[in-house]
Amino acid sequence: MTEKKRVTLKDIARELGISVSTASRALNSYQGISEETIKLVKDYAEKHHYIPNSIAVNFRKNRTMTIGMIVPEVVHYYFSSIISGALHAAKKQGYRVLISQTDEKLENEIRACHNMLAGNVDGILISISNETEEVDHIQDFLDEGKAVVQFDKYSEKLKSPIVTSDDLESAYRAVTHLIEKGYRKIAHINGLANVRNSKDRLAGYHKALKEHGLDFDPNWIPHCKDITEEEGFAFAKQLMESSNPPDAIFCITDSVALGAMNYLKQAKIKVPDEVGVMGFSNWKISEVMNPSLSTVEQHGFEVGKMAAEILLKATQNPNEESTNQFTEIKSDLIIRESTQK
Amino acid sequence: MTEKKRVTLKDIARELGISVSTASRALNSYQGISEETIKLVKDYAEKHHYIPNSIAVNFRKNRTMTIGMIVPEVVHYYFSSIISGALHAAKKQGYRVLISQTDEKLENEIRACHNMLAGNVDGILISISNETEEVDHIQDFLDEGKAVVQFDKYSEKLKSPIVTSDDLESAYRAVTHLIEKGYRKIAHINGLANVRNSKDRLAGYHKALKEHGLDFDPNWIPHCKDITEEEGFAFAKQLMESSNPPDAIFCITDSVALGAMNYLKQAKIKVPDEVGVMGFSNWKISEVMNPSLSTVEQHGFEVGKMAAEILLKATQNPNEESTNQFTEIKSDLIIRESTQK
DNA sequence: TTGAAAGCGGTACCAG
DNA sequence: CTGGTACCGCTTTCAA
């Protein structure tokens, strides 16, 4: 193996008969260096493909220009969009992004945090797992004066900025839309009761019903465990076969809505005429479904971009106390066929 | 801001009245250290939450336990699956993964490579952009004796291991399936002619036709530029309105197939009876389409996992010359309604 | 079994 | 404008 040794500052200094410090200053274009020397050094560096050893620089400056990003899942339209936005913002400011996936397991999340902390990232972006209750592993960052920004699913135990979609408000608008279309008996297939975005969407549902003076049957709010198509199918069946079936179903996610639609199709219940169906997340499938599914676009790219921008700003002002700044990225209601009574 | 200073080895040594080297050895459980000292140091370290400064360790050892991963796009089922597989394999071996996205732009790819190289990653996983022809920016890694593994889209100019899906073979099987189902005039909406997986899928198409002694019209092979639904629609229209319309369309991707299906639906051409449609990639939409789309599942997770495993192995044997080892992950044909004549 | 010290590749302070 | 030097935190060789 060739393994060319890299040219170092010392090499440059030796070859050019100057001191290491002069070489360093010349390359960094400090003031108080003659044009001549600068040119000499820069030319030499270029010619010999000098690449500063960033580990050494990081070591000296005690920062890495790297942020960590911890997400429950990578293969997921919303999360990958968030990642994309964060990568975009980070690149723009010359930061690198280390990504770790927890698979919704607390254990993996803790390991990832330890690893990032030991790895001296300058800050982290994190969306906590469904299992996460205690957050000491994240608090460790704050205790070291490192920036943390939470996105999507967050814990209120941490004093950190938070960036999310406006789940409550957009759920409210989604359900209001159903009401305006004439649906009156609206069910909501929700997620795990203790997960933040489930709670917010449920609250938006309640808010819309209350505002329009609509009642609901407590049986109309089943909770998914894994937010799958299968659960959507099963709960839609359960709802429609109950003694008091709804005339619309607001689903926590498009995949759940897909399952519900499949059940309705099988049961020969017409969508949107007999039952309206509303999804959430605007996955590609929602456009393709038949009838096409009304849903909510959450603009993950913007969430990720904003989260990274806030993090980098905090990273660059290390003397400021971390805040609770709360940012909601406005979602858009996308109206398609499944709610057009 | 609190900004607790981290405990260093020096602190431990001072407090315990031993030398820094002894403390280091005790923590790393070297031979030739008394049990007593080891216990003393380890207890102290634990009690005071000692975290080794990994920048310093990396600096000293001249490695980072970090690999870089450069992909054209993150928000993409196949690529995000590959990322997930790579993260999985890397975590297992204690490596971290830095991710960079090129948006299919050579310029971004070059920047990402420079940045990774300067950042002293131990190796990179890369899928080149559609624009990439010259690969000096990647060759730089090999020249430094750093491991490179290419996946999905690769350049043959680099002497590096390659991991991909078996595009040629699976395209061959997909088209063979169409032939077996009785389709005889099979068109293929291909991608950019110079992109590797387009070429392979096209070759698989040709192989299947040839083997079954079927002719094809040269007009039956249009090339998408962006591989979009819109192109699928437009090319399907062009094909079906031509003087010699096909009776089946093999599409380079599910999204192209979706566009094609939409055109066929609009033109009231029955799928699969009048025209068969075959996709590629097994996106979630293929299952949801009506009729459901036959397609090819490429097992991205396995591709990413394998690529990372090969990279890490190479990283750990830095004295070995890089090889051209070529690994194909076998894809699976998924037969649904759109090809059941 | 332990300690002293060199040094990884830069940065930045202090002198001149 | 330039050189000398200490040092960032840790590993590792050499000597005791």
TrEMBL record, chains A, B:
Cross-referenced SMART domains: HTH_LACI
Residue ranges annotated for the HTH lacI-type domain, each copy included: 7-61
Coiled coil spans: none
UniProt entry keywords in alphabetical sequence: DNA-binding, Transcription, Transcription regulation
Gene3D superfamilies registered for this protein in UniProt: 3.40.50.2300, lambda repressor-like DNA-binding domains
One function term, GO molecular function aspect: DNA-binding transcription factor activity
Recorded superkingdom: Bacteria
Pfam families: LacI, Peripla_BP_1
Coiled coil in keyword set: no
PROSITE patterns: HTH_LACI_2
Family matches, as SUPFAM superfamilies: lambda repressor-like DNA-binding domains (SSF47413), Periplasmic binding protein-like I (SSF53822)
Keyword Cell cycle: no
PANTHER family linked to this entry: HTH-TYPE TRANSCRIPTIONAL REGULATOR GALS (PTHR30146:SF109), LACI-RELATED TRANSCRIPTIONAL REPRESSOR (PTHR30146)
Protein name, entry field: LacI family transcriptional regulator
UniProt source species: Algoriphagus formosus
